[in-house]
Amino acid sequence: MHRTITARMTTAVAVTMLLLGCAHNSTTEPQFGDSVRHMTEQQIYNLDAAYNPDPNPVEGGDVDRLTNVLESHRGDVADPAEASGALEVGVRSDNR
Fold first, then answer.
1. DSSP string of the chain, one letter each residue
2. d(CA 15, CA 13)
3. Can you tell me the distance from the alpha carbon of 65 to that of 71, in angstroms, rounded to the nearest whole number?
4. Could you give phi then psi for residue 52, rounded to 5 degrees?
5. Bigger pLDDT: 29 or 17?
6. Cα angle: 60, vertex 65, 66; to 5 degrees
7. pLDDT, tens digit, 9 for 90 and up, residues 29-77
8. How confident is the model at residue 25 (pLDDT cuts 50, 70, 90)?
9. What is the C-alpha separation between 87 and 93, in angstroms, rounded?
């Protein structure tokens, strides 16, 4: 009888601990996405300009450089015919 009570208590404690381990952790929810926002902010050279942009358009520039950038941007688009093929996914069964 003593073993039965001990086994039940141990089982109850184990189940309680497992349920508490799966409980919703509300302390991590508000921080969701903070690392991405921080990384994006660190990639901006002038944060003040990002939050208060200049309303005036950029004037001037090297015509040849801008033309090359525009042409390379337009030419870098993938051909939809190339992307419409079947996708093969392989899964290895060994642990390598």
1. -HHHHHHHHHHHHHHHHHHHHTS--TTTGGGTTHHHHHHHHHT-S-HHHHHS--SSPP----HHHHHHHHHHHHHTSPPHHHHTSPP-----SS--
2. 6
3. 10
4. -130, 75
5. 17
6. 60
7. 677 788 888 888 888 777 787 788 888 887 888 889 989 988 888 876 6
8. low
9. 19
What is the pTM for the complete model shown?
0.25
Question: Is residue 60 left, alpha or beta, with left meaning phi > 0 and alpha meaning psi from -120 to 50?
Answer: left
Is the pLDDT at 26 greater than 60? The verdict is: no
Instruction: Count the neighbouring beta carbons within 10 Å of the beta carbon of residue 92.
Output: 6
